[in-house]
Amino acid sequence: MPSYVTSVGMEVHAELLTESKMFCRCQVAFGGEPNTRVCPVCLGMPGTLPVPNKKAIVMVQRTAIALNCTMALESVFHRKNYFYPDLPKGYQVTQYGETNPFGYKGWLEIPSKSGTRKVHICRVHLEEDTGKLIHLPGGGSGIDYNRAGVPLMEIVTDFPPDIDGAESAKEYLVQLRAILVWIGVCDGKMEEGSLRCEPNISIRPEGSDEYGTKTELKNLNSFRSVQLGVEFEAKRQAAVLDQGQAVIQETRGWNEATLSSYVMRAKESEADYRYFPDPDLAPMKFDVSYIEELRNSLPELPLAKSNRYQIEHGLSAYDAAVLVGDRAWSEFFEDCVSQGSEPKTVCNLMNGDLAKLVNEGGQASKITPAHIADLAILITKGTINSKVAKQVLDEAFRSGEMPSKIVEEKGLTQVSDTRFISETVQKVLEANPDPVAQFRQGKENVLGFLVGQVLKETQGRANPSLVQEEMRKQLTQ
Fold first, then answer.
1. Is 106 within 8 Å of 176 (Cβ atoms)?
2. Confidence check: pLDDT of 458 > 90
3. Of 280, 302, 294, 278, which Cα lies nearest the Cα of 57?
4. Domain extents in the chain
5. How far apart, in whole angstroms, are the C-alpha atoms of residue 10 and residue 226?
6. Are 394 and 358 in contact (CB under 8 A)?
7. Helix (H, G, I), strand (E, B) or coil at 45
8. Would you say 253 and 225 are in contact if contact means Cβ atoms under 8 Å apart?
9. Model pTM greater than 0.90?
10. N or C: lower Cβ tally within 10 Å for the chain?
11. Does the domain spanning 418-475 belong to CATH 1.10.10.60?
12. Which of 383, 456, 378, 380 lies closest to 424 in space, CA to CA?
């Protein structure tokens, strides 16, 4: 059987964080009673006229800049014509053309084994979302138009595809979502449908330059679904070709229960949509100074910040990725470091014990960057050890007291008195003759147990490194 090369193009739809819909004043919200956030404009009633949402336009332009796109200084909205029950107007307002979308010919960097690689972006454009079909309990379908007209941004990768498999497809979506959430244009809640992905998958024999027929997986709403969907579709297409048959260009759905795809409909061609400029919406013009103002308003983006954390602070790629996974979490970290605390110690506290306390919930955290900075300084100076630090953080989380005050009031400072440590080690060795004998017979793994007994005896306050040093000294005498 021949080997195949997988190629994946990505279409990602992101609902924008506006308060109202794209061309009317209806509220944007998730869920709620069906058909309660609608009006004559978003329902496409005759005689109604749309008014563009400026905030949505700005959000798409900021995204396009973040994705290194060439920015359109002139742009128009088009009508994409097709008939489907969830499309009340009989057409969708969108942007069409190579250089007409707000942003085009950009790129996004994703991590790779050799560092980073570029995934090229064809276009970033703005359109309106459709309604939602609902399968009714008694059979048949209903339609909820609450979502119809919600501002929807579409980001399409370029051809030929830079994504060569399921893992790269997932990583692209991870990085793209991080940017959208980071710059505040989308909440990234894939489980609620505010970020949806449609991979276009094709395979070709290894060594061939001719791309195969693609199939599109519709509306995937998790990183896992994207990875598994691409993997399944590549294998399915390979099986079709191995049987001497041809892959059909079609739109397919994804069944999460069976982890398999199924046919929805034959894939439409571009001509089927009969695009033309929307006569109810005026052309838009932007000047260079406006675009530069938007560019200057963007924050440092997640991947760049992650790389900087690794270079400047010596953090691992994993730790840096966790910190930049949420903008508020990253800003918390930087606030701690700005107060003079050691970055790696702060990172360990945040990504370890603090994250655990926050995730457990049950009560609101009273921890501020000043608390973590104070605690990190206590650890770095050797005033307390890591075991005591955990105890102090738990107390500070509940009470809001500063760690240094808790340490002072409860007498939790680390004990480094060599005489005291020596006496305690001797006491522990006398009380544990069997582990001592095992160590002297070559079983060094019991050392941890003995050190733990000293820490238990001193209520965690003894300096662990001094304890271990003294323990080895006395065991080898």
1. no
2. no
3. 294
4. 8-204+265-290, 302-410, 418-475
5. 10
6. no
7. coil
8. no
9. no
10. C
11. no
12. 456
